[in-house]
Write a structure and sequence with these properties.
With 451 residues, this protein is an all-alpha fold. It is built from 18 helices and two strands. It has a two-stranded antiparallel sheet.
Length: 451
């Protein structure tokens, strides 16, 4: 009888601070800069701010369930590991595969967004159109910037988790410092009259609809606190598992404060309807209000730092989930292998890099639909994890069932056609392609190790 193959472990190197920067870094991207007009057009300042605050409160039970699950089961497979012994393998696989979509789909979003961001400083990037998708041109310099970023992030991750962690720390704390500065300036120099009317639609029914239309996309923008579980195998030897819970709760709270702060500051510095009508970003609003190119450029630099960390954070989370599934033999086992010298999953890194490069070819047409697909994807993963927690951890059963109900609501908001803002053909198409790929992997390989 042959000896069982010994799996190389992921490198154990992360501290509590780094779990926060990975969680927060995976959550906060550049939506606050490039999509602020979309948020305000959906809900107005009041609707958008209330939606993000309410969304964080609704997600708190899910964060609590995840905190306890990660503490009890530190496994890169996260959702698939939590579901083992509770649900059939197919359910765990579906939840984990869907969560890979939630993370992996952010990477091409950021690869596209880096061109959008750089073009705000270097307009020459908006030259040499290659083709158009959904009426939006794809420019050669922007596409090249996104592909270079993808290659750079992949190369850094091949070096190992320490290189990734250093980037997360520098980019996260750099962003927070600039955020504190420009939001303080916004509230100090702005005026509350610019935020009127508070809601995008009149009347009490209009206010409720304004909040709902933003609330539908909030799960996508607050996704990240649960990503800490994907890196849980990489904690330092002396790491106290209770810090997982603290990092998850702190990430969710910090994310909500960040988004509400940006919405409030931008709405104070310029009349928000002007911002929506002109399709202005956050930096353009501050440039107009202060007449300062330096402030605008500082905000763009903060967004660039944010882009680097969210790209890297979601890239790491997606690759670790692939490792967890690959180890169980539910996809090609090469995706579950870890390089013995670097302690990094090289095959999974290459897979996510290729997916990112191909998806980024769709250009700016990818941006808003991606937020819709991501919201449904995390709802599926969160719901499965919460139901597993209810079975595994009696001490969090109430929170877990509440979290599962919230997750079900997130999914229903996107799939029920009569709900405003539900899936269109573009979102269904993207989800169908990913589901087909997962189905192909599921039937192409044995059903994994014996339970």
């Amino acid at each position: 009888m042959k000896n069982a193959r010994v799996e190389t472990p992921l490198r154990r190197a992360l501290t509590g601070v780094e779990y926060f920067t990975f969680g927060f870094g995976t959550m906060i991207g550049v939506g606050w800069l490039v999509l602020i007009d979309d948020w305000l057009s959906r809900g107005g300042p009041g609707g958008a701010a209330i939606a993000f605050a309410a969304g964080a409160l609704l997600l708190a039970p899910i964060a609590r369930a995840y905190g306890r699950l990660v503490e009890a089961i530190p496994d890169a497979g996260a959702e698939i590991a939590y579901a083992e012994g509770v649900f059939p393998k197919s359910v765990g696989f579906a939840a984990a595969w869907t969560m890979i979509l939630a993370y992996a789909i952010v990477c091409p979003w950021e690869a596209v967004a880096v061109g959008n961001l750089l073009a705000r400083v270097f307009p020459a990037l908006d030259r040499w159109p290659l083709y158009a998708i959904a009426g939006k041109a794809v420019y050669a310099p922007r596409l090249a910037a996104g592909l270079l970023l993808t290659g750079g992030v992949a190369a850094m991750n091949v070096r190992g988790i320490r290189a990734s962690a250093r980037l997360q720390n520098a980019a996260t704390f750099g962003l927070l410092a600039i955020f504190a500065l420009f939001t303080a300036l916004g509230f100090a120099r702005g005026h509350p009259a610019n935020a009127a009317p508070l809601f995008a639609r009149p009347g009490s029914a209009g206010a409720a609809l304004s909040i709902l239309l933003v609330l539908q996309i909030v799960p996508y923008f607050l996704t990240g606190f649960e990503s800490i579980g994907k890196e849980s195998e990489e904690a330092r030897e002396d790491f106290d598992p209770r810090h997982f819970r603290r990092a998850i709760a702190g990430t969710l709270a910090a994310g909500a404060v960040f988004y509400v702060g940006v919405i409030g500051a931008v709405s104070f510095v310029v009349p928000w309807r002007d911002l929506v009508a002109g399709h202005l970003g956050t930096e353009a609003a501050f440039r107009r209000a202060f007449g300062s190119e330096a402030i605008a450029r500082a905000i763009v630099f903060a967004a660039f730092l944010s882009l680097l960390k969210i790209f890297n954070g979601n890239f790491v989370a997606a690759t670790r989930l692939l490792v967890g599934i690959g180890r169980r033999g539910l996809i090609h086992p090469a995706l579950g292998r870890v390089d013995s010298r670097r302690g990094a999953p090289v095959a999974a890194i290459v897979f996510v890099a290729i997916f990112t490069a191909v998806a980024s070819l769709f250009g700016d047409a990818l941006l808003v639909p991606v937020t819709e697909v991501g919201s449904l994807a995390v709802g599926v993963g969160w719901g499965t994890a919460c139901l597993a927690a209810a079975r595994r951890l009696p001490g969090v059963r109430a929170a877990a069932f509440t979290g599962a109900a919230v997750a079900a609501g997130i999914v229903l908001m996107k799939v029920l056609p009569f709900v405003p803002g539900s899936f269109t053909k573009a979102e269904w198409s993207a989800l169908a392609v990913w589901t087909a790929l997962g189905t192909l992997f599921w039937f192409a390989h044995p059903r994994g190790k014996a339970s």
